[in-house]
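Field log, afternoon session.

UNIT: design team B
ACTIVITY: writing a sequence onto a fixed backbone
BACKBONE:
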């Protein structure tokens, strides 16, 4: 059909995960909140899944809150911690990195615009990293929550979360990290990271869409975003989606077991793309850090090339990639992430993200590199190329 090089957008589900889910879509359909045997069977499944996820994160089961995915986890983290800190210690200041996924960025903007929080963007360098020194300077006694993405979904850059979280901890400020891309590619044991809140989501590691979790360190002041029944410690009302939760836990366990092997292989493939592009395509620049980056992410800008035209041409030629930004194709606005890193608008409009996964082969990438080379040359508008 087409060669899939967009594993940062989503991944295909592992067959073993579907097999685990099927009984809960069929005969084991009970509501985990019911007291009878049907409910108990569903509840056992949920609690077993929670224990398995907790084991992978190195936390206690009751610190895992199941959600509908990354966006909801980010919302619960930011809104819940912001209002929780306002409630418990009248804190009103939000410190957010400017290279976040929209689920964090727009939530922070909304908290500022509609709920009166004072929003401060942390500085980032031209590789998209937040420095511990800058965080140390910005954090205040009335800071409610700090949020810094772990592995960047657009440009792949990895932040040194343990160093940043240590500063938050010294100052007693809740620290959240969006680990949607990092999970099962980078270490996510919560005590090694030192974070209070961590967002994870199954469809980025070969699990089902529509399910994720928020790790909540016990004692973190957090208000519910969705009220109703007392599911998930009262933090997330609603009948559990048993099959998705079971699938999530199984996908997490499988991906953690093969994490090292996968990451090594992804990194080899990633470097093959990066070297191939930078060596062969004039006017190509890597975005994000060369080595401190997600193992599966290669991202670029091509001077004088329109990123959306490039994506469309690649799609026609049988290669599925992304511009990297959360915006849909057709949106002429450059990525907020690239602008926050100080990139000029013109250049930022020429972005391309290539992300590899379990099904990617080196042969596919060789074919891709040849096609990409010719396409960039064809599409390039006749402007001067500065080296
Ligand atoms: C995919 C992603 C999200 C959103 O997760 P959904 O489960 O699709 O809602 C949030 N943050 C990052 C970094 C992501 O890659």
């Amino acid at each position: 059909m087409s060669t899939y090089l967009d594993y940062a957008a989503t991944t295909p589900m592992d067959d073993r995960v579907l097999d685990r889910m099927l009984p809960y879509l069929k005969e084991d359909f009970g509501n985990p909140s019911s007291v009878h045997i049907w409910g108990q069977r569903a509840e056992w499944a949920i609690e077993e899944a929670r224990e398995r996820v907790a084991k992978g994160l190195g936390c206690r089961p009751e610190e895992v809150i199941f959600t509908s995915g990354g966006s909801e986890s980010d919302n619960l983290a930011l809104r819940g911690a912001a209002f929780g800190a306002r409630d418990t210690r009248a804190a009103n200041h939000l410190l957010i990195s400017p290279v976040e996924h929209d689920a964090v960025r727009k939530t922070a903007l909304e908290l500022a615009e509609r709920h009166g929080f004072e929003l401060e963007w942390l500085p980032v360098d031209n590789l998209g990293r937040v420095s511990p020194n800058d965080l140390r300077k910005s954090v205040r006694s009335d800071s409610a929550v700090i949020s810094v993405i772990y592995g960047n979904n657009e440009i792949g850059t990895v932040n040194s979360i343990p160093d940043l979280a240590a500063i938050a901890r010294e100052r007693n400020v809740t620290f959240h990290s969006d680990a949607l891309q990092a999970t099962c590619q980078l270490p996510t044991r919560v005590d090694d990271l030192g974070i209070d809140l961590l967002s994870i989501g199954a469809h980025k590691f070969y699990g089902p869409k529509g399910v994720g979790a928020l790790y909540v360190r016990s004692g973190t002041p957090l208000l519910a975003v969705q009220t109703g029944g007392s599911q998930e410690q009262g933090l997330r009302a609603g009948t559990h989606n048993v099959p998705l939760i079971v699938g999530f836990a199984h996908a997490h366990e499988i991906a953690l077991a093969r994490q090292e092997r996968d990451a090594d292989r992804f990194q080899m493939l990633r470097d093959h793309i990066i070297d191939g592009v930078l060596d062969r395509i004039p006017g190509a620049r890597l975005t994000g850090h060369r080595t401190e980056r997600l193992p599966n992410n290669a991202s670029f800008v091509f001077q004088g090339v329109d990123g959306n035209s490039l994506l469309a041409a690649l799609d026609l030629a049988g290669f599925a990639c992304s511009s990297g930004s959360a915006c849909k194709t057709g949106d002429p606005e450059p990525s907020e992430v690239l602008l926050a890193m100080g990139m000029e608008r013109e250049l930022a409009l020429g972005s391309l993200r290539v992300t590899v996964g379990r099904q990617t082969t080196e042969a596919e990438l060789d074919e891709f590199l040849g096609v990409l080379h010719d396409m960039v040359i064809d599409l390039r508008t006749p402007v001067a190329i500065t080296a």
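LOG NOTE: The chain has two domains: 3-10+259-374, 16-257.
NEXT ACTIVITY: expression trials, pending approval
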